[in-house]
Write a structure and sequence with these properties.
single chain; globular; 3-stranded antiparallel sheet; PyrdxlP-dep_Trfase_small; 3 domains; Aspartate Aminotransferase, domain 1; binds pyridoxal-5'-phosphate; Aspartate Aminotransferase, domain 2
């Protein structure tokens, strides 16, 4: 019988460490060392007594058992020899072997007190009871998506993960309804904000013009990001709840050359939806070379986006909103035109982690199932993204957009029924992912949000810097919309009605 590689490796390291006596600091008798089933090492009492120094022994054993725990042939740089030669004991952290437990911990009770018939905590789920998160992102997550985060450790360049990442990137194309091979999906560890940095550092050069269409807080921030990398950002600002007119946009494009036009598809601070299809048409007609950049952080996965058909150049988004994956991934789709603009830059990008020079080849490789490394991907998050995108793309995207539009219509009708108004007054300006609701005169967000929480529902306060306490925001995306068994929307509307009544009564209104 041929001994396994692992066994040969073990014999090799064992004999070098314990039998040759080459250690500079510790002498351990081989007879006193026992390899545990979990890969750790135990000394018998007599052998412990023979050690020159107990603390040195702990440090040394820490190094040895860490290596053995991996139970795999070692990559060259990770042998006990190189660790021994290259690090001082003080560099090393004490290693406590992992003891896996099968005990199931009892979930904590929900962080609110309410009578059972008014509680709306999630019950159709294996998740611990919790108040339903209906802010405009992060949103509630599907059990299967969360469970994929518990994937065991694997190499980010091993065949298993490479396959998962490659498939994930192909599904990002489907999410954007794109079949253009020149377009390129990108998934990088980071939040939605990293998408702004990627655009600002790669697609615009110092001194070039950017036109920012402002429908709320997030346009101000995107403009600041563009300026950080040296662009001249011009904003067209609309009154709160409205959006710049098509005439204003056309006029601005005729006045000077713009490298990019940025549009926030849904501004999460106001709930205003922009017509990105119409804006892209105007840009192509008036200034065909200008790149159309969409901030889709609060729209991708619930608002219609036909990336190729609408001739869009960049959509940037994040994992935690309508895509339904925990926060931590920055997701972008770039057109062939955008990739060309990057490749023909006159100056190198003023960013390192955000540089497309680093990421484009990596993404192409992963999508062709070739292992590749620039910076370590968030492997567990990519598994979660794979799961949620598998669910989303299993059905036609128009079905998903329609489900969000229906839920949104239901919410907006109920809001109106309560005598409340939205920041986005015109129906064509109203997002389907969320609703930003003006509070009645005399009430502020802190008067209403605790009443909602008491009923197991979490909404967000306002975010627009001119009126943050005068309104609240209700996010209706992802599983809260697509899984009717959860009843999240109905429960939230009932909770809102009661919380408002309580708040009015408390204020004598
Ligand atoms: C429209 C919009 N753009 C950008 C961002 C920034 O994304 P992140 O918070 O993931 O960095 C957000 C966050 O809510 C957003 O709503």
């Amino acid at each position: 019988m041929v001994p396994s590689t692992n066994f040969l490796l073990f014999l090799f390291f064992f004999s070098v460490f314990f039998l040759s006596g080459t250690s500079r600091r510790t002498k351990v008798g081989a007879a006193g060392v026992r390899l545990n089933l979990d890969g750790g090492i135990t000394l018998d009492g007599a052998s412990r007594g023979k050690l020159t120094s107990p603390s040195q022994a702990t440090q040394r054993l820490s190094l040895i058992s860490r290596h053995l725990d991996q139970r795999l042939p070692l990559p060259e740089l990770n042998t006990p020899f190189s660790t021994e030669r290259n690090s001082l004991p003080s560099d090393d952290l004490e290693y406590n072997p992992l003891h896996r437990s099968t005990t199931i911990t009892t979930p904590l009770p929900p962080p609110f007190s309410s009578s059972p018939n008014t509680s709306t905590s999630t019950i159709m789920s294996t998740q611990a009871p919790h108040s339903t998160l209906l802010i405009p992102g992060p949103i509630e997550f599907d059990d299967a998506v969360l469970q994929s985060m518990a994937h065991y450790a694997e190499s980010h360049v091993g065949p298993g993960f490479v396959k998962t990442f490659g498939e994930t990137l192909s599904m990002v194309r489907k999410l954007f309804q794109s079949t253009d091979p020149a377009a390129q999906p990108i998934v990088v560890s980071g939040s939605g904000t990293l998408g702004w940095d990627i655009v600002a550092s790669n697609l615009v050069e110092k001194g070039e013009n950017a036109l920012v269409l402002h429908t709320g807080y997030f346009a101000d921030s995107f403009a600041t990001c563009l300026e950080t990398y040296g662009a001249n950002a011009t904003q067209i600002k609309a009154p709160i709840g409205d959006r710049p007119s098509f005439e204003q946009i056309e006029q601005a494009l005729k006045e000077k050359p713009y490298k990019v036009v940025t549009i926030t598809h849904v501004d999460t601070s106001t709930g205003v939806l922009s017509d990105i299809k119409r804006v892209a048409e105007i840009v192509r007609r008036v200034s065909p070379e200008t790149l159309v950049v969409v901030d889709g952080v609060c729209s991708v996965g619930c608002e219609e986006i036909a990336f190729d058909a609408w001739d869009i150049d960049v959509v940037l988004t994040a994992s935690q909103k309508a895509i339904g994956c925990p926060p931590g991934l920055s997701i972008l789709m770039l057109s062939g035109r955008a990739v060309n603009v990057f490749q023909n830059r006159k100056t190198p990008p003023a960013a390192y982690y955000a540089s497309l020079a680093n990421w484009l080849p990596i993404m192409k490789n992963y999508e062709s199932f070739k292992p590749s490394y620039f910076a370590t991907p968030a492997t567990q998050l990519v598994h979660a993204l794979h799961t949620t995108l598998s669910q989303i793309t299993a059905r036609p995207m128009p079905e998903r957009f329609a489900a969000h539009a229906q839920a949104s219509a239901r919410v907006k009708a109920a809001i109106e029924g309560l005598g409340l108004q939205q920041l986005a007054a015109k129906p064509e300006n109203q997002a389907h992912a969320m609703t930003a609701i003006w509070l009645p005169e005399g009430l502020a967000a802190p008067d209403v949000l605790p009443g909602l929480l008491k009923r197991g529902v979490i909404f967000a306060a306002g975010l627009h810097k001119e009126c943050p306490t005068k309104y609240i925001r209700f996010g209706h995306m992802g599983v809260s919309v697509t899984d009717p068994a959860r009843k999240d929307i109905d429960n939230a509307l009932a909770a809102l009605k009661d919380a408002l009544a309580d708040a009015k009564q408390a204020k004598g209104l």
